[in-house]
Amino acid sequence: MTKDYYKILDITEFSDIDEIKIAYRKLARKFHPDIAGNSPDIISKFKEINEAYEILSDKTRKADYDAARKFYSYAKGESSNQKYKNTSTTQKDSTCNNNKNTKKTYHNKTSFNFKWDDIFKFTNPQENKTNYPQKGKDIYSDIEISISEATLGTVKIINMLQTNICPKCNGRKFINGSICNHCKGKGETSDYKRFNIKIPAGIKNLSKIRLAEEGEKGLYGGKNGDLYLTIHIKELKNFKTEGLNILKTISIEPYEAVLGTEKPISTPQGNVMLKISPFTKNGQKIRLSNCGLNENEKFGDMIVTIEIQINKNLSEDEINLYKKLKELASSKIR
Question: What is the pTM of this model?
Fold first, then answer.
């Protein structure tokens, strides 16, 4: 054990979390480079204090450290007595053949062969398993796409955070009694990986895309897990779907309903001009063929409902025109 974190913080292994925090704050203030100076010794001491606090203030990491510390102390005590246990002793046999002065040698067959790997079989659940190949865990995530992207297909770029067993300490968290400097005692590492996900045309909502062996790393030569991505098709405002058909409502002015007009409409296949004929009624539906969703090369339609609305902020001139229209009306609807 190269570092005694209890000694560094000047506490005992029985100190509770409040005592650990108090000791850390006291030493952190004392050895902070802004106060004690920025000499190499001070900086090293300050880092050591922070390292000790990070381990002892975390229940899991503290438990692992305590286990390693106890085993190390035990091994050190046993090793110091090796010369007494392994030496042979020679003496006269006091019970048999006294007259022949026969010498008999006694050997201690028990020896202590200390390995750090044996320690962490108790502290790391992964090491309790037989070292047979084990498949890594699968990872699940979601991708949101628009109706247009679902219809035409697209490519989405995603960054996935993948967590794997630390390659340096193999998840043990410690190496020769010291915290693994690669994973900082966590036993695992996390890195982002970039993926270009091809979304096929006509994909349905809640469909899943599987990327083989892009999940967590396998253990002991086992295969990696898989990455599963669930597709969520985002409904646009004023859009609804009915099978492969897309339903949309648009608003027009009264004069547009009477005189007719053209309106740009966004569809999954791109923008098109919707022609509204003169004397269009409120609630009238116009069908745009093959402008809906796509499934197996079969396209639905877009059905547009016309809603005639009157502007609530009419000018005085506009109101006067409506009065004039009333006077000129040649027929009654009712």
Answer: 0.43
